[in-house]
Amino acid sequence: MVIDRVRQRCGENFLIEYRMSGSEEIEGGLTQEDGIAFAKMLDGKVDLIHVSAGLDIEEAQAVHTHPTMFLPHGVNVHYAAAIKAAGVKTPVVTLGGINTPELAEEIIADGKADVVAMARQSIADPYFPEKARHGDNMDIIPCLRCLDCLTGLHNGNNLSCAVNPRTAQECRFDRMSAPAKRQRKVLVVGGGPGGMQAAVTAAQRGHQVTLAEATDKLGGLLKFTDYDDLKVDLMRLKNYLIHQVEKNAIELKLNTTVTPSSSRPAATTPSFWPWAPPLPSSDPRSGRSPPWSTPPPSTPSWPTSARRSPCWAAVWWAARPACIWLKTATM
User: Fold this and answer.
1) Stretch 282-296: mean pLDDT, rounded?
2) Which of 50, 58, 101, 128 is disulfide-compatible with 93, CB 3.0–4.6 A?
């Protein structure tokens, strides 16, 4: 076998992990029985047998290799469990939509695998192992299984993450998120995900932050996740952000509507709004206006005092979700 030659060349002190599909989940492909037989052939010849699933070159099966939120957490674990149950002695690794310490512990405790691998969850929060070890589960940034990381790579862009803007830009963000040289009073209007992150970022940089929310609880558009079982990962993101607001020095004002007259200096603005890019107003081929050409809301009429106030930058930038992580860090 090729693996015998690899071991011969590398020696006994070289760790070899072999990744395979427990099943390719496609007609004419490797079945679960084939996967078990192949694992038995590898038994004793490698140090770890890493059991995935699917066939990456087939889009319909690739979702098992990189499970989305539409599949159960730990969707591939049963393939690893079957290999262990077949008597394979080499430690078996499992993976596939596993993004909580509780699920990882359960898999190990039940003997379904010897090692749990997490790729996307480690991108969302590189400190996942440390936080889990110390029991700080509520401080773990949850992976949404949205595939934003893979989409960027497949499109030729940099690695990115929908819930962690620091991904692949750690050095840049370390410079930008250093403690502020001047403490400011910051008002963030709107307790949705954008507003909460803006408030947390400003507070962590040393500013005196007030977060105003018009309703009786935080969450914004993510409140619906309390009632949608399919969006449990989004609910974990909402709860994570709420926890971060609670643990940081942020003055929270619920049931509070902010207007120019109710707070000075302040201005009425949501924590985000739909925004259209400044593209041409008509399609040169048809002369019709494209669907994205709807102009964004007009810029609020900021009072002169508000333009000079310490809180204006936070209120203004909290209105653009794409800028929240970056712009609040530059204040």
Assistant:
1) 48
2) 50
**C-beta of residue 331 within 8 angstroms of C-beta of residue 314:** yes
Contact, 43 vs 90, CB < 8 A? yes
Give residue 225's pLDDT: 94
Beta bridge partners of 20: 51
HSE, CB side, 13 Å, CA atoms: give it for residue 10: 15
Per the listing, tokens 């609020």 go with 300
Model's pTM, two decimal places?
Answer: 0.77
Is residue 89's pLDDT more than 90?
yes
Burial 138-165 (b: 16+ CB within 10 A, else e): ebbbbbbbbbbbbebeeeeeeebbebbb
**DSSP E strand stretches across 113-204:** 115-116, 185-189
Mean pLDDT taken over the chain: 82
Give the number of other Cβ atoms within 10 Å of residue 115's Cβ. Answer: 17
Residues 199-227: what's their mean pLDDT? 94
Alpha carbon of 85 to those of 65, 81, 82: distances in Å?
22, 6, 5
Report how far apart, in Å, the C-alpha atoms of 15 and of each of 5, 46, 47, 151 are: 14, 8, 6, 31
Pairing of strands 92-94, 250-253: unpaired
